[in-house]
Design goal:
By secondary structure, the chain is of the alpha+beta class. The protein has helices spanning about 1-15, 30-35, 40-70, 95-110; strands at about 80-90, 90-95, 115-130, 130-140, 150-160, 165-175. Strands 2-1-6-5-4-3 form a six-stranded mixed β-sheet.
């Protein structure tokens, strides 16, 4: 009787260690597990370079979208700003809430889009882990008279969060004069 109880206990312990049929201990098929090779330093560098290209592409896309939304006075682009975003430049400081109010006011004043185009030129993206610095010249060109142009030298600082890349800081200054 004692050996029967001990046998039942041993079987119970062994069965409890087995996975349930609904548990998937191998998320990939066995042939894929065995086909995997240890990663080499070259593979690691290639993956890192690919991730960097993806990040750079995403940041360029965000910059392109913000230019389009700015031109259209579309407040949707302010969703890409961190809640603590700040703009510094040309003797002014602007917080996210100030910018949102300005976009709404501009939309009402211009009955929609701004009377100028926005283009970001000479863009450079530098990545530092979960922080990125994007520099460019932002050109404002009036739509009524395209010879009237104003350029700004912009620096945007992004950080990566669980929501993706968020713009934290924008620094604006006058663009350097182009040589003749």
């Amino acid at each position: 009787m004692r050996s029967t109880a001990l046998t039942c206990l041993l079987i119970g312990v062994l069965l409890s260690a087995l996975p349930l049929p609904s548990q998937n201990i191998h998320p990939m098929p066995p042939e894929e597990i065995h086909a995997q090779k240890p990663t080499s330093p070259d593979d690691t560098r290639a993956r890192a370079a690919n991730l960097q290209l993806q990040d750079e592409s995403e940041l360029r896309r965000i910059e392109s979208e913000t230019a389009k939304f700015e031109q259209q006075n579309d407040s949707k682009w302010t969703d890409l700003l961190a809640d603590d975003w700040v703009l510094l430049g040309n003797k002014k400081t602007l917080m996210k809430t100030d910018l949102q109010a300005n976009v709404k006011q501009n939309f009402a004043a211009h009955n929609g889009s701004n009377p100028y185009t926005v283009e970001k030129k000479n863009m450079r993206v530098d990545l530092f882990g979960d922080t990125a610095v994007v520099t460019y010249i932002k050109e404002y060109r009036q739509t009524a008279d395209t010879t009237k142009v104003h350029d700004e030298d912009n620096t945007d600082v992004f950080t990566r969060s669980s929501k993706g890349w968020r713009l934290r800081l924008t620094k604006i200054s006058l663009a350097p004069a182009e040589p003749n």
